[in-house]
Amino acid sequence: MSIDEVVAKVHLLGGLVIPAHVDRPSFSLLANLGFVPDSLEVDGLEVTPHFVPGQGLQEWPQLKAWCLIVNGDAHRLKEIQNRTLFKVEAPLIQEISLALRGEEGRKVIVEWSNEA
């Protein structure tokens, strides 16, 4: 399946598409394509905990078009990070979708620990 087909299928099933680690130097959307296609209908983008907004958005200005979230690549319980907060009324996919779009009072708050 192409990435567009995967995105369409996930949305058809009621899910959200948030490509992970888009800023990684290998095996990521930006490493493979050099950009995120404008036509890619994803709901948000996940960046690594090492992403520095000032530098990252200068290098990849097109990332400003999407809601960015940050998660850790946890392989152990002690590595879990609480860097992204979703302000929603209930733990529902529809509410998370509203937060990613910043609609109806819902929002995403990211704690950028390495702001430059």
Give a structural overview.
- The structure is a single chain.
- With 116 residues, the chain is α+β, with helices and mostly antiparallel strands.
- It has helices at 3-12, 29-33, 53-59, 93-101, and strands at 45-47, 68-70, 84-87, 107-110.
- The protein has a two-stranded parallel ribbon with strand order 1-2. It has a two-stranded antiparallel sheet with strand order 3-4.
- The protein is globular.
- The termini are far apart.
Q: Count all strands and give the number.
A: 4
Oligomer: single chain
Number of distinct helices? 4
Helical content class = 25-40%
Strand fraction: 5-15%
| Category by helix and strand content | alpha+beta
Give the biggest sheet: 2 strands, parallel
- Please list the strands of the largest sheet in the order they lie side by side: 1-2
> N-to-C terminal Cα separation, in Å?
38 Å
Return residue spans where pLDDT drops below 50 for at least 5 consecutive residues: none
H-E string: HHEHEEHE
Shape: globular
Radius of gyration: 14 Å
Mean pLDDT, to the nearest integer, reads: 90
Topology:
Elements: H1 3-12, H2 29-33, E1 45-47, H3 53-59, E2 68-70, E3 84-87, H4 93-101, E4 107-110
Parallel strand pairs: 1-2
Antiparallel strand pairs: 3-4
